[in-house]
Amino acid sequence: MVFLPQEVILKKRNGEPLASEDIARFIAGFAQGSVSHAQAAAFAMAVYFNDMDMDERVALTLAMRDSGTVLDWSDLDGPVADKHSTGGVGDNVSLMLAPILAAIGIYVPMISGRGLGHTGGTLDKFDAIPGYQTQPDNALFRKVVRDAGCAIIGQTADLAPADKTLYAIRDVTGTVESIALITASILSKKLAAGLDALILDVKTGSGAFMPTLERSRDLAQSLVAVANGAGLKTGALITDMNEPLASAAGNGLEVRNAVDFLTGAHQDPRLREVTLALCAEIALMTHKATSPEDARALVDDALDSGRATGHFARMVAALGGPADFVENMDTYLASAPIVRDVFAEGQGTIATIDTRGVGMAVVALGGGRATPTDSIDYRVGFDRLAPLGAVADAQTPIARIHAADEASAAEAEARLKRAYGLGDAAIENPIVAGHVGAKE
């Protein structure tokens, strides 16, 4: 029977459930060019308004996975796992999580993305390291995963290519926020990576794409249900993004923060809690530990013993970065010409932080993208960001700014001051606000 993509669009437009075969043929046709971009846009809008049930979401995710190559890691002698974050500010968890897991015998082939809007991207952070290849060929990718235990790279052209094109269409048609489409987009890439287990870090709060706990929980439950339904053992933590996670925001500054974290020179408490909680979930899912207590002790030791730092250093060197990067990062990470403290307007306790506003202040400095083609200045951003509950006054800054010029510094300072709300006391938010467990 001749396949007519418009019939799939009409069904979903009318609120009818789609058969798995129809979804598979529609996405295959889109990947091959027989389904037009206009038809894909109409399909995305129909899904946006009429949603998809779990069976449809699983079918869409698998169809997008199967639009390209699916990696096979069966030659490795341990489990293969990864983490995905829904995005935030000062979220450099991946830089520490991958080597911590490698240090306990879990391989991490992490395929990451770039930042857009107020959120930072993991690949942009690694681009701050001279020589580091974020787009290696498949042979080098596999070699680094095998030898260093982890490799953090960008999405290759042959991994879930239908997702990359469909996302671009969603971005310009106002359909990005559909939970069904977000779910398929995230998971198709992770399924294509050939993982045994996946942990999701779903953000909630003022710096998250899902600012309310209810919406964040809906997304976490959808992601976990669909991933497990597609055969990938997956769990999720819902974590707080009502303030920047690290005390640094900006690519090179977050790399410095991550190296200091790994070496023990400086560890932001909230960042340590989220990173090790995610690592412990993976240790449990891959049966490296048999209880939450054992899992936490295992990952704590991998970090505090320095073993994770060694895996990070080997990964950086193997992907083209400096062999002595950890020991001499100040030699390799460029510094901005303007560095100075930023003080709040008035004095008091930091009661609220508009975390999205902090992220947009980094964008104003040139450290993020307003459009996908924007270039980035890896030197700029903020460090020493004051947390909720800290005191701000004329002698106690809320941050230190790193800027390329006075004009961008002035705008970013003004944005940061607006983002920090002073009062008598801070609103306390649990760092881990929810948990959605994986199916055994």
UniProtKB/TrEMBL annotation:
Catalytic activity: thymidine + phosphate = 2-deoxy-alpha-D-ribose 1-phosphate + thymine
Domain Pyrimidine nucleoside phosphorylase C-terminal: 349-423
Record's keyword annotation contains Glycosyltransferase: yes
Recorded metabolic or biological pathway in which this protein acts: Pyrimidine metabolism; dTMP biosynthesis via salvage pathway; dTMP from thymine: step 1/2
A Pfam family matched in the record: Glycos_trans_3N
InterPro entries xref list: Glycosyl_Trfase_fam3 (IPR000312), Glycosyl_Trfase_fam3_N_dom (IPR017459), Glycosyl_Trfase_fam3_N_dom_sf (IPR036320), Nuc_phospho_transferase (IPR035902), PYNP-like_C_sf (IPR036566), PYNP_C (IPR013102), Pyrmidine_PPas_bac/euk (IPR018090), Pyrmidine_PPase_CS (IPR017872)
Keywords from the UniProt entry: Glycosyltransferase, Transferase
GO BP, sorted A to Z: pyrimidine nucleobase metabolic process; thymidine metabolic process
Domain of life according to the entry: Bacteria
SUPFAM superfamilies hit by this protein: Nucleoside phosphorylase/phosphoribosyltransferase catalytic domain, Nucleoside phosphorylase/phosphoribosyltransferase N-terminal domain, Pyrimidine nucleoside phosphorylase C-terminal domain
GO cellular component terms attached to this protein's record: cytosol
EC code: 2.4.2.4
Gene Ontology MF annotations: 1,4-alpha-oligoglucan phosphorylase activity; thymidine phosphorylase activity
PANTHER family in alphabetical order: THYMIDINE PHOSPHORYLASE (PTHR10515)
Oligomeric and partner information: Homodimer.
Function: The enzymes which catalyze the reversible phosphorolysis of pyrimidine nucleosides are involved in the degradation of these compounds and in their utilization as carbon and energy sources, or in the rescue of pyrimidine bases for nucleotide synthesis.
NCBIfam families for the chain: PRK05820.1, T_phosphoryl, Y_phosphoryl
Record-stated family: Belongs to the thymidine/pyrimidine-nucleoside phosphorylase family.
Protein name: Thymidine phosphorylase
Gene name as annotated: deoA
